[in-house]
Each structure stands twice: as structure tokens, then as C-alpha cells.
Amino acid sequence: MNILITGGTGLLGRALTKSLLADGNKIWVLTRSPERAVLPLGCTAVGWDGRTAQGWGELVNEMDAIVNLAGVNTASWPWTEARKQSFWNSRVWAGQAVADAIRLAKKKPKALVQMSGIGYYGMRGEPATESTPPAEDFSARLTVAWEFSSQPVEDFGVRRIIIRTAVVLARDNIIMKLLELPARLFFGGRLGNGQQTLPWIHIADVVDVIRFLLNNERARGPYNLIAPESTINADFLRALTKRLNRPYWFHVPAFLMRLVLGEMGNMVLEGRPVQPKRLVEAGYQFNYPTLSSALEELYR
């Protein structure tokens, strides 16, 4: 297949590109700095401004599928108003640009994978599935706008798949590095009361899910990309410190996390259980369904 990826220079984009290339697919990656992009051999970097279809839109005529992963990482700290606006703009503008390019294309791609997040459901409440309505906090409103940005492609007959992703477990993920840091400094322990859900999925499963859904012509709409094993913060960090051969004893109070991280602290101090209902019903088999298997692979 010919596949166009936005956000392809990021952690997930690089892993997905490498996997797709290994099977003989041809990959084009949209990036603001194509001359500096470090991409796998065989991948073509194409410049774009992150907000329009100018200079690259005609490529869509050659594509079988598009994967839209673009968006500033919300793990960036602190969450100033300007930074929150950058989260919003980078997602909405990219989605609108992709939708516009598809609208103008004479030959439409068969499928679009639209990145999203389980922040859609908010930080509190009963276990959520894909049919659960969105919450009303900032993360939820951001996610709703992110998904809606590319919705017009459905009117053009393009199969749109929305992947609402949990925290991606990968050694190079900034969130994983933040979770590791206290343990590596021998201050590992739970954050807040430790009872909040910490939703996660191994990066290998994210890549395989995207490929699984692309190849399933009946797949469309939202899918929760989260491991089937629900894990609370205390259990996650206890398992992580054990894997790193560090003590689990220094528990960080919630007020200190909020003092240091501000609004971003809600990402680690609160968490709603989410279930991968539609993914399981579609027949996907997780490579790493349990936290122990995921951490074993990451740190072996």
C-alpha cells in the first residue's frame, strides 16, 4: 500500500513507519522540517506547514490510506494558556488540512486513521467504552475537537478509524521517563492516593492495532487502544520500581504534584477505567495484555 503519515517523526510514527516498510509498503511522512527528519530508509519526507494542504495535497491521489498522528505532546510542561492553545491548534489544523486534501483529491484514499486519546471520557467515572459520551474538562474538549477536525472525510466515502489511545509504554516516551525518574533516584512510590487508574498500552500493540484496523474493511469509528488489564497507579509504580530494582516507599502527596505540575498534574492524579470493547469484539489479540508482560519486554 501507499500510506501517508502525519506526525511520522514522533515516537509512534517512527515505530509504525518501520513496521509498514518491513512489509513492503511505501511510506510518505509529512514534516515541517523534511531536510532534518531522521526517518527509516525507504521512507519519503514531505514538507508541510501543519495547517494546510499546500505543497503536498496532490500526493493524496496516490495514497491508499492516511494515518493522522499530528499533535503537540500534552506531556509538555507547564500547561500555560499558550501551550494549551498549541495542543489545540496542532491537532485541529492538521485534521482540517487532511480533510481538505482528501476533499480536493480526484482519487480518494480508502481509509483514514485519526489519532485521538482516552482523555475523551474525562478523568472520573464508571468504566468507559466507545459508546460512553465525552466529558467536559479541557482534555475531553480537546479530544472531541481533534476527532471532529477530520470528520468531513466520511462524507467523501472514506472509511475513518478513530484510535483513542492510552499512555503508550515505550522506553523513549517522555511520560515513561517521568514515571521512571523517581524510582531511578530511589524515591519511587505511588502518586497521590495511588487508587486512580493508570491506562496504558504497549507501543507494539498500538502499531499492530493500527495495521489490524487498516486491513479490516469493516473497521470504522472509535476504538479504545488500551490494554485489557486495568491497572491502578500504585500497582503500576510498584511493578515498575520492582522491574528497575529500586525501593517502593516514597509516596508523593497530591498537593505537591499539583503544586509542581499545575493542571497537568490531573493526568497522573486522576484516571478513569476504560475498556477496549470494540477492539476485543473485532478479534484483536494483544501482544502484551498484562502489565507484567509489557514491562518484561521493555526492560529485558
How would you characterize this protein structure?
The protein is α/β, with parallel strands linked by helices and 300 residues long. The protein has a domain of 206 residues: Rossmann fold (3-Layer(aba) Sandwich), CATH 3.40.50.720. The chain is 36% helix and 15% strand. It has 10 helices and 9 strands. The strands form 2 sheets. Strands 3-2-1-4-5-6-9 form a 7-stranded parallel beta sheet, sandwiched between helices. A two-stranded parallel sheet has the order 7-8. Helix 1 packs across helix 5, helix 2 runs parallel beside helix 3 and helix 6 runs parallel beside helix 10. The longest helix is centred in the N-terminal third of the chain and has 24 residues. It is globular and about 60 Å long. It starts with a strand and ends with a helix. 40% of the residues are buried.
Quick rundown:
Helices cover 36% and strands 15% of the residues. It has helices at 11-22, 81-104, 138-148, 174-184, 203-215, 233-243, 254-261, 266-269, 277-281, 291-299; strands at residues 2-6, 26-31, 43-47, 65-68, 111-117, 159-165, 167-169, 200-202, 221-225.
CATH top level label of the domain at 2-167 and 201-226 and 274-287: Alpha Beta
Q: Outline, from the CA principal axes?
A: globular
Which sequence of strands runs across the widest sheet? Answer: 3-2-1-4-5-6-9
CATH topology of the domain at 2-167 and 201-226 and 274-287: Rossmann fold
Percent range for β-strand residues: 15-25%
Overall helicity: 25-40%
What is the element string, with H for helices and E for strands? EHEEEHEHEEHEHEHHHHH
Overall mean pLDDT: 94
- By CATH, the superfamily of the domain at 2-167 and 201-226 and 274-287 comes out as NAD(P)-binding Rossmann-like Domain
Low-confidence stretches: none
- Rg, alpha carbons: 19 Å
Rounded to the nearest angstrom, the distance between the terminal CA atoms is: 34 Å
Number of helices: 10
* Overall number of strands: 9
CATH architecture name of the domain at 2-167 and 201-226 and 274-287: 3-Layer(aba) Sandwich
Sheet of most strands? 7 strands, parallel
Structural class: alpha/beta
